[in-house]
Amino acid sequence: MPATNKKGTSAVWAGEGDLNVKGAVTSPIANSVAFSYTDLDEWHQVATGKSDGFIYSRNTNPTVAVLEEKIRVLEGAEAATAFSTGMAAISNTLFTFLTAGKRVVSLKDTYGGTSKIFLDFLPHYNVSAHLCDTTHHEEIEAEVAKGCDLLYLETPTNPTLKIVDIKRLAAAAKKAGALVVVDNTFATPINQNPLQLGADLVIHSATKFLCGHSDAMGGLLAGKKELVQKVFHFREINGASLQAEPAYMIARGMKTLELRIERQNASALTIARYLKAHPKVKDVFYPGLETHQGHEIAKSQMSGFGGMMSFALDGGYDLVEKFLPKLTLVHLAASLGSVSTLAGPPRTTSHVELTEAQRRLLGIPESLIRYSVGIENVEDLLGDLERALAGI
For 322, how many CA atoms within 13 A lie in the half-sphere containing its CB? Predict the structure, then answer.
């Protein structure tokens, strides 16, 4: 790949070339389960990790390697590894480093599946998990100082788009000797690079913005080589490997990542400002708004505010039930980051695993709607929202 510090170029070229069939302009899909060797010594060198190569696709695969290189370059990491889903990336990372007797500090506003691990799964393994008020940085620092093996952050958060100061909290974690892991799914490496702000590892649900087309699932982890290797060895034995075909589709989607994110950044800000001024909307959660609690922090650590937002109607869940079906340029579906706009309430999307009481405890109102802005013309999306709001 030519030397460049431009993310749009890296998204297209990183990982391409060395593994291609000679002359091919697109990296091929290597669906082979195993890779053969005529030289037994070379085979052994590759199998023991002393030489580069491929042995068995549960461990490594040429097509998956292309995707891993793309995220490695875009995040400025030493190494990267891939998983079958975003939750596989999160769970494998947490279970690699959090063994019995250890303590993790995190936020109350993490994705519902992540919260489930903290609230229900880790306690069974004698791992202590403390969830702090997300925007209360002093509380997080105090809990880290009490003793912490891993600080897990998500910013912007899902689904309320809260912002935490990665640089500040990473510095506190370093003083305590804790690892810092950041879920960067909402921001994408186009808008934010946590490793440059002090994080040790960065996680992506590649199913979302990286893929961008809602047609392939995957997860990615990037960061310090020593740490990534530990998670890789956990993953290769536990089997949450990414197959070649979805890896190819995600890598293909990433080639247009910068273009899509630039469009979604601009459209989301326009829509957020429109909704903020609408009398039937009680609140809008988008870090690009000057009125957002985390706006100044977001400005300091993000180059764009992303394509995700949420907003609360001025009423209860019954109003959500009336409003959402009136939207015509939206898929009511439990995902995000697609070229098409997606929307839904947390009770069926980000926090379906939790009870209403648990969602309330996390500060998620039942009237909240998560809205993932696609790449449609923004005037059409505004018109769609206006018609739906007029009908309730």
Answer: 13
